[in-house]
Backbone:
């Protein structure tokens, strides 16, 4: 059935304008972005099929490459660009620094809340440094690395240089686990200790290393097992 054959109240665009975007399903919102269908499929049919390719998960859809989107019948450059742009706008909206950054960062939960909009749904690792002043207010953020296996390499000198430029006295290391399990592995533990010693030798304090998964996080500072064993997580 073509969208024009639906009643006005059930057409995604009209429904959104009259009832609000929150009243639409994921498929209907995606249909609004797609705009138009093909001779054989409506925009809503295209949207539902595209969601099917992503197993119904927006996080999976977000990580589809442009080539994968363009390989879907009925999805041309314009439609693919609209979908990619919408996800990027949503991510940037969530990354806008709100009241959280005007408060001292004192807990791992605050760190998680600050960076989860950036890290949620990523299919690769990103490693960030949060720079804090003497009162634990955020002085700056630095993307240290992103990508594959080599993303665990951290340039301590670059971090220290950036921290001094921002007037920071301490920092928090944050990275994500795309697997969904925030528990640190041996490489994470070695990285944490190496960074702690490296910045400590230059007068800075590593307050925590927070490992983020989509719906959970692990804090080295909070984990008593890690502290009790001197850096060994079982």
Residues:
């Amino acid at each position: 059935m073509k969208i024009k054959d639906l009643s006005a109240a059930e057409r995604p665009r009209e429904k959104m304008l009259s009832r609000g975007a929150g009243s639409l399903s994921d498929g209907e919102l995606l249909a609004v972005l797609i705009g138009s269908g093909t001779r054989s499929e409506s925009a809503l049919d295209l949207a539902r099929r595209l969601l099917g390719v992503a197993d119904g998960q927006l996080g999976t859809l977000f990580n589809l490459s442009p080539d994968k989107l363009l390989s879907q019948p009925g999805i041309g450059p314009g439609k693919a660009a609209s979908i990619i742009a919408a996800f990027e706008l949503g991510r940037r909206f969530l990354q806008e620094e709100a009241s959280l950054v005007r408060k001292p960062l004192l807990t791992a939960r605050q760190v998680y809340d600050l960076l989860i909009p950036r890290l949620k749904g990523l299919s690769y690792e990103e490693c960030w440094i949060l720079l804090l002043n003497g009162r634990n207010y955020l002085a700056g953020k630095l993307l240290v690395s992103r990508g594959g296996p080599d993303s665990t390499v951290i340039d301590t000198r670059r971090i220290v240089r950036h921290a001094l430029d921002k007037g920071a006295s301490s920092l928090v290391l944050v990275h994500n686990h795309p697997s969904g399990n925030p528990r640190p592995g041996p490489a994470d533990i070695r990285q944490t200790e190496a960074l702690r010693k490296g910045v400590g030798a230059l007068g800075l304090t590593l307050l925590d290393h927070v490992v983020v998964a989509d719906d959970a996080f692990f804090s080295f500072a909070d984990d008593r097992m890690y502290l009790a064993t001197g850096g060994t997580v079982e």
User: Anything to note?
Assistant: The beta strands are 125-132, 138-147, 170-176, 205-213, 216-219. The first helix runs from residue 12 to 19. Residues 35 and 77 are 13 Å apart (CA to CA). The chain has ten helices and five strands.
